[in-house]
Design brief:
Number of domains: 1
Order of helices and strands: EEEEEEEEEEE
Helix content: under 10%
Radius of gyration: 16 Å
Strand order of the largest sheet: 1-7-8-2-5-6-9
CATH architecture: Roll
Number of helices: 0
CATH topology: 10 Kd Chaperonin, Protein Cpn10, Chain O
Number of strands: 11
Shape: globular
Length: about 140
């Protein structure tokens, strides 16, 4: 028998080892500050790029400088599927990422849907490493 868990009721969930739990990763339709609606690009080659997530918890072995509540840029595909949690603070979706996959940190949430200057060639996109901030 397969158990499909869409949402779990918990008071608090903790990361283990050096893992990081993040929330607020965006995979669906987005809107720029100018009001332009961007459709979901997940599963398409132009959707292959790092994504921002808000640090929900850090494991006890994680000695990196970022803190709970800060935003981290996670290397593309280096996150787990999200799991819904019903907490005392409301419903959230949490994903696990490895500390080694974090590329940058920010105190402020990303202001635009795009994280870097995109150079589009057909259905593919390339990003230059220098377009991203460093940790």
């Amino acid at each position: 028998m397969t158990l499909n868990i869409n949402k779990i009721q918990v008071k608090k969930i903790k990361a283990i080892g050096n893992r990081v739990l993040v929330t607020d990763m965006n995979f669906g339709e987005q809107k720029t500050s100018g009001g332009i609606v961007l459709t979901s690009d997940d599963g398409k080659s132009r959707g292959i790029y790092p994504r921002w997530g808000k640090v929900y918890d850090k494991g006890p072995d994680n000695c990196d400088d970022y803190k709970i509540g800060q935003w981290v840029l996670v290397e593309h595909g280096r996150w787990t599927r999200g799991i819904g949690l019903e907490t005392n603070d409301g419903d959230i979706e949490v994903r696990m990422v490895e500390a080694e996959s974090i590329l940058a940190v920010s105190d402020e949430p990303p202001s635009e849907a795009n994280i870097a200057k995109e150079y589009t060639h057909g259905d593919s996109a390339n990003f230059r490493p220098e377009d991203f901030g460093a940790v």
